[in-house]
Design goal:
Shape: elongated
Number of helices: 3
Order of helices and strands: HEEEEEEEEEEEHEEEEH
Protein name: Transmembrane protein
Strand content: 35-45%
Keywords: Membrane, Transmembrane, Transmembrane helix
Number of strands: 15
Radius of gyration: 30 Å
Length: about 260
């Protein structure tokens, strides 16, 4: 049994290699991508082209996800992703490309040369299989080559919309601007909610704005209490942050 496990562990490098490093060399007429492996790479390589995107797939190769933007005449971006012991290298190009692959250092390295389509390619030392399955989409999807987190954007827009509604209400009801004391404090509770304190007509309103809109407190304030030290609010916020978060959770459960 021990001998079997030893042979299994010994044989793992024969079936899989890891991408250790890569370097990009941009020239006027070509772009070279140099790959270095921790062991000799013996896997199969295939390619698929779709418009301005070209995908090279390396079976039996593991790598870390990378995204590199280039200031090149040929290539805009190069994205490296790995899944199920297969590494995909996506080229987003300014024109259609052809690729030439050459093994170096006894297959411990590989040079990928990207040239304009129709250009003279160097003699290949590594064959590339052309994928012809038209139903299979390139990975990753072209529109997803870069991801964007819209959470903060949506939160900011919600706050702006709420403020516009408040201002519209003030204008519609002919509220004297002197009665509106403005927003006194504003702090993020989490990525989706903010704690806002504002004064209006000698009253102070404490509200949660965002995914959960709650009025926590409204009370009358004396003229001498209108100006509150920012340190007092920070102390109040930190002392009651857990209670505020629990209120948000209860509101979300009810919804």
């Amino acid at each position: 049994m021990k001998q079997f496990i030893f042979l299994l562990l010994f044989s793992l490098p024969l079936f899989s290699a890891k991408l250790v490093s890569y370097n990009i060399y941009d020239r006027n007429d070509r772009v070279d991508l140099m790959l270095s492996f921790d062991s000799a790479y013996q896997g199969k390589i295939s390619q698929k082209k779709e418009g301005e995107f070209a995908l090279l797939s390396f079976e039996g190769l593991e790598a870390k996800d990378e995204l590199k933007s280039l200031n090149s005449k040929l290539v805009n971006k190069i994205q490296i992703s790995s899944k199920n012991n297969t590494t995909h290298i996506m080229f987003q190009a300014k024109e259609k490309l052809d690729f030439g692959l050459s093994s170096i250092n006894g297959k411990f390295g590989l040079r990928i040369r990207a040239l304009p389509e129709g250009a003279n390619l160097p003699q290949l030392s590594q064959p590339i299989k052309q994928e012809t399955d038209k139903e299979a989409d390139l990975m990753p999807k072209p529109k997803n080559i870069e991801s964007f987190d819209y959470t903060n954007y949506i939160l900011v827009m919600l706050v702006l919309v709420l403020l516009l509604v408040v201002l519209w209400w003030f204008k519609k009801t002919n509220v004297n601007s002197k009665n509106f004391g403005g927003i006194k404090f504003q702090r993020n509770i989490d990525r989706n909610n903010q704690l806002v304190v504002l004064d209006y007509e000698n009253k102070r309103y404490v509200m949660i704005i965002g995914n959960s809109n709650l009025l926590l407190e409204s009370k009358e304030v004396q003229q001498e209490e209108i100006k509150v030290d920012n340190k007092d609010f920070n102390s109040f916020f930190e002392d009651n942050k857990r209670k505020i978060q629990n209120l948000i959770l209860e509101k979300q459960k009810k919804d």
